[in-house]
Amino acid sequence: MTFERVSPSRLSPALCRFLVLGGVVLLLSGGIQRVHAGEPAGTNTTSAIELTNLATRIRPYVHLRSGEFDTVWGVQDMWGFSVGADLNRHVGLELAFDSYEKDFDPFGTKIGEESLLSLAPQVRLRLPLVHDRVVPYVVAGAGIGWYDYNDPTQDGFGTSVDAQGTELVITAGVGVDLFINDNVAFNLEGKYIWLDQLNISVDGQAGTFDMADFVGTFGFRAYLDDTTKLKLFDVVEEPPIRIYFGAGFGGAVITDGNWVPGVTLVPESASIGTVGESVELALGFNFGRHFSFEIPVDYYESVIQLDSIGGVSGGVGEYATYALIPSMRFRYPMMNGKIAPYLLAGFGGTYGEVNDRYEKPIYVTVDSKGFAPAFAVGGGIEYYFNRDVSLFGQVKYIQSWNNQIDVNGMGEESGDLSWLHFQIGFRLNLLSIGNKAE
Fold it and tell me: What is the domain partition of the chain in residue ranges?
């Protein structure tokens, strides 16, 4: 008996979940590093941001955000990403991408999930305050939204569902940027995403489904220009310790998915060959010119596939893997600190669990939840836009062993698993301790 997997379109929720960690550490590390009123007498209190605004310089940025707490009102796995620019002191333009899900229950019973992906050009009107360190704003725009049905529940299997489509999206909201330094701001934003209800059909029964809702997010806005003439930190005489937050997105290949006899891991949603989604979030610090220590979490979701076990073949459920592997990075700054190739290595563990089970006979059970030891090795390269923001690309091999699994209550077996992750992303300096001159 073979069961085909219904391929979900949702993107990984890991970015939403681990931005919580970044926000908490940011607040604990002291929040806004500089309050001008408290600086020593004689200090130049005109920041790079103030000079930029006075000169009406265009400042390009990226905005990473999470709606982790929106589950309170039924919005799930909400995250967003924007690319934009402040055109002058008060006006900005951006292209905003937002993604979230809701329980799909048009006739009272949840039979799956409905996702919304929206892409909307937006205008931001800003009001810089407190030496431009606190910047409230309003935002509004219009674009397009894509509906998609995914992850059917047991009540939804075997049901004919037509719940895909596109609609006009209108967005409006408010937010505030709290600048940690001249190039990185902690952000809070709330906006309403409005679009027409989608006409749907479930087993021939017509209806509508509404995905319009309020989304509240927190995250970071990172500016990509260099407003100062100061040297990058890696080339000053005594580089300060820099605490940073990193976020990367990309793909992963399962290099060893032969778990135990009859059980294999395969990609959850391979968009290119056998490549599935991969997300990394990290907290770390750079010390000196050449060394960094970080605690990354790499997230990857795959499918447990059985080969004629209990009369069942095919995918029976999704398997989420979180790799928490503290790592050292050896960095080699070049070109006056603008580029820094690096090698990494670390030892830690993985946590895995079965979720989103697929349709299967009730006599087939798969149980796997727990920790396993693991190591990671790899390398990458960073490009520094300024002292506080860098773009990185990296490749990382993760090997995990003694992963436990129990099929049909026949007793736990263990096996080795491995993945090759490759990602691009940003590292944002949250706090610098030591020499910041030059």
Answer: 2-7+237-433, 32-223
